Amino acid sequence: MILDVNGVRAGYGGTDVLHGVSFRVGEGEAVGILGANGAGKTTLMRVVSGQLSPREGTVSLGGRALRRASPSRMVRSGVVLVAEGHEVVGTLTVLENLRLGAFRFWPGKDPAGDELLEEVFDLFPILADRRHQLASLLSGGQQQMLAIGRALMARPQLLLLDEPSLGLAPIVVEEIYERLDRLRREKGLAMVLVEQSSGRATDFCDRVYVVRLGEVVAESAAAGAPLSEESLKAAYFGG
Ligand code: ATP
């Protein structure tokens, strides 16, 4: 197992949002975390990426439980989050944004950094074409590609993607999923995909978990064994 989240309770102030959530991600697996608005998916990604400490439960990487995880420690350990809302720094160029993601390997200073940059440009050629443009001038889909590209510059072992489809046209979503599929096939990169709607993510992922009101209420049994329509509906809407 790359990631093992076990019995995580977490929240903000005096309120718990997650009430004992457990899920796992194996080598090279794409795992979906599905659930309606407000279910706690983003909070779960904050815990896994080290931004929010669990009040109870553990997050283990490669079989070792992490004490006092921090975002920089998680990135060093190979876990990188692409946050919701394709956040890029609009006042910096595409290339500068990509350099921000270079955690250990610096393009221009380190051959491994140059190689990573070439890999990102190969995956998203539009970013190479626009490398000297301000990120604010990119379309929403291109900004999402930039956010993913920036995460790849840290050479992750596990990529966390919080609602990569949010606000994007279906054709752009298709394109992004196609590139994610390439990353999975060619690099064996493990991923956690958080999505609100089940269709695209369930098709893509090896396994999915459904979160409702801070608890995992359904999970697919194994790779290639998707949840039934009924159990998905019950998990989303209760009953
Ligand atoms: P969405 O699909 O809208 O992103 P989500 O499943 O990701 O939803 P979260 O964003 O994790 O859900 O939110 C779960 C609950 O935690 C909500 O009730 C939300 O209001 C609350 N919450 C989220 N962030 C904070 C915060 N920083 N401070 C206080 N409460 C928060």
Automatic annotation (TrEMBL):
<dbReference type="GO" id="GO:0015807">
    <property type="term" value="P:L-amino acid transport"/>
</dbReference>
<dbReference type="InterPro" id="IPR003439">
    <property type="entry name" value="ABC_transporter-like_ATP-bd"/>
</dbReference>
<protein>
    <submittedName>
        <fullName>ABC transporter ATP-binding protein</fullName>
    </submittedName>
</protein>
<dbReference type="GO" id="GO:0016887">
    <property type="term" value="F:ATP hydrolysis activity"/>
</dbReference>
<dbReference type="GO" id="GO:0005524">
    <property type="term" value="F:ATP binding"/>
</dbReference>
<dbReference type="InterPro" id="IPR027417">
    <property type="entry name" value="P-loop_NTPase"/>
</dbReference>
<dbReference type="GO" id="GO:0015658">
    <property type="term" value="F:branched-chain amino acid transmembrane transporter activity"/>
</dbReference>
<keyword id="KW-0029">Amino-acid transport</keyword>
<keyword id="KW-0067">ATP-binding</keyword>
<keyword id="KW-0547">Nucleotide-binding</keyword>
<comment type="similarity">
    <text>Belongs to the ABC transporter superfamily.</text>
</comment>
<dbReference type="Pfam" id="PF00005">
    <property type="entry name" value="ABC_tran"/>
</dbReference>
<keyword id="KW-0813">Transport</keyword>
<dbReference type="InterPro" id="IPR017871">
    <property type="entry name" value="ABC_transporter-like_CS"/>
</dbReference>
<dbReference type="InterPro" id="IPR052156">
    <property type="entry name" value="BCAA_Transport_ATP-bd_LivF"/>
</dbReference>
<feature type="domain" description="ABC transporter">
    <location>
        <begin position="3"/>
        <end position="238"/>
    </location>
</feature>
<dbReference type="InterPro" id="IPR003593">
    <property type="entry name" value="AAA+_ATPase"/>
</dbReference>
